[in-house]
Amino acid sequence: MEKVRYGADYYEIMKNIVIFKNYTDRVGTSVTLSYCLMRQNWTEFFDFLILAEELGCSVFVNTVINPDECSLFSLPPSELLEIVESMEIMGKDAPKYLKRNHWCWLQQMKTLRGHAIKALDV
User: Fold this and answer.
1) How far apart are the first and last CA of the chain?
2) Distance between CA atoms of residues 36 and 31, nearest Å
3) What are phi and psi of 32, to 5 degrees?
4) Are 39 and 72 in contact (CB under 8 A)?
5) Backbone angles phi, psi at 90, to 5 degrees
6) Which residues lie below 8 Å from residue 24, measured CB to CB, with a gap of 6+?
7) Whether 59 contacts 104, CB under 8 Å
């Protein structure tokens, strides 16, 4: 996370998330976490979803298109397929660990794989 969010402190962010989560639990609202899935952090995505599960938070994924060097969608299709396959191996037990965010995991796998396959057909 600190590679992507320059100047960020993981522990400070986690402390703040817990503060917000405790507050929303008290007042009956919710916290949603967002994730910019990109080349620099795709290996951490499944773990982020597990963390969100532990916190009781839903996850929204931002599609990163620009800059190209950050976007998964600008990779050659064969390379993107390799990443999707690696992610699927990481998340092979997704239904076991993800309840609230399993749909998010499935949607991202579908989107990334679909993009790569469509690019191969072009």
Assistant:
1) 34
2) 17
3) -115, 135
4) yes
5) -60, -40
6) 30, 31
7) yes
Alpha-carbon distance of 34 to 92, in angstroms, equals 22
68-108 confidence digits (pLDDT tens): 999 999 999 999 999 999 999 999 999 999 999 999 999 99
- C-beta of residue 92 within 8 angstroms of C-beta of residue 49: no
pTM of the model: 0.90
Write the single-letter amino acid at 105: W
**Is residue 83 within 8 Å of 42, Cβ to Cβ?**
yes
27, two tokens: 């007042």
Q: How far, in Å, CA of 87 to CA of 98, rounded?
A: 15
23-39 pLDDT tens trace: 999 999 999 999 999 99
Q: Are the C-beta atoms of residues 36 and 4 closer than 8 Å to each other? A: yes
Helix (H) or strand (E) holding 28: none
CA distance 12 to 15: 5
- The answer to whether the CB of 44 falls within 8 A of the CB of 2 is no
